[in-house]
Protein: Dehydrogenase
Amino acid sequence: MFDNQVVAVTGASGGIGRAIGAMFAQNGGKVALSDLSPPVEAAAGINAKAYACDVSSELSVKAFIEQVEGDLGPIDVFISNAGVGAGNGPHVAGGSNESWETSWQVNVMGSVYAARALMPGWLERGSGRFVVTASAAGLLNQVGSASYSATKHAAVSFAESIAIEHGDQGIKSHCICPQYVRTNMTAGVDFSGQREKLLEPEDVAETLRQAIRDEKFLVLPHPVAGEYYAYRAANPDGWLDGMRKMLAKLKETKSYIFKDS
Ligand SMILES: NC(=O)c1ccc[n+]([C@@H]2O[C@H](COP(=O)([O-])OP(=O)(O)OC[C@H]3O[C@@H](n4cnc5c(N)ncnc54)[C@H](O)[C@@H]3O)[C@@H](O)[C@H]2O)c1
Structure:
């Protein structure tokens, strides 16, 4: 399906990024995986190349893209997947400025830096595919983390802007919005009280494959997230009420996803 397409993935040493890389490799892609340190083990298993890339640094993102293009050829598909989260602290604005800034840099600017480096070549060629791993928190909210919620909303918005601004110039954009997935990010969290299923990273990768096949912007590994998204738009007060009930439950079980920082 992706024969000889050059695919670059960030935040890919494990979890969703690694599974997405493997999915592209299984479907014929030439895959470049990156993370803060080169994800050598993840890359070896799928005959991919491993690179270091800190997505919060524009220089690092630019260098990653240049290295991949030098080694494998022009990038066809870019997966902006690296992500971080932090808890609120004592109240909704209790997280440090540094913590908010890190979330902004990694969850939003990482995509902006990559798009800035890729777009001139893509516009010249009239093709390119940009995939953002946002979150259902970017359509709804992450209870206990205002910074994750705000930055993932921004991540969804940036993916939408690519689709709007450049969709008629041959550039495709997709936004992956899962609820909970079994990765390092969710390790140690008690999901027994959750209504929704904890998916495997491979499920997310397969949903992305299908969304690309069907040219769908929004990638919803948990389809119910789309129903909540519609409910939020139709009935904002009812939705906020439901979220407060969820928060009350989380306070009882203390099963927040993110630690304070
Ligand atoms: N696991 C979930 O339930 C879930 C749900 C929705 C969305 N997501 C999103 O999926 C993406 C992948 O997360 P995951 O669940 O696979 O967890 P993960 O912790 O395995 O992957 C996140 C990766 O991002 C990397 N990273 C962090 N800061 C970086 C930086 N500055 N530069 C480059 N890489 C950096 C980490 O090293 C890590 O490998 C994230 O964007 C996350 O927000 C996860």
Q: What stands out?
A: Strands lie at 6-9, 30-35, 49-52, 77-80, 128-133, 171-176, 218-219. Residues 10-11, 13-17, 35-36, 53-56, 81-84, 106, 133, 135, 178, 180-181, 183-186 surround nicotinamide-adenine-dinucleotide (CB under 6 Å). The mean pLDDT is 95. Helices lie at 15-26, 40-44, 58-72, 97-125, 146-166, 201-213, 224-234, 236-253.
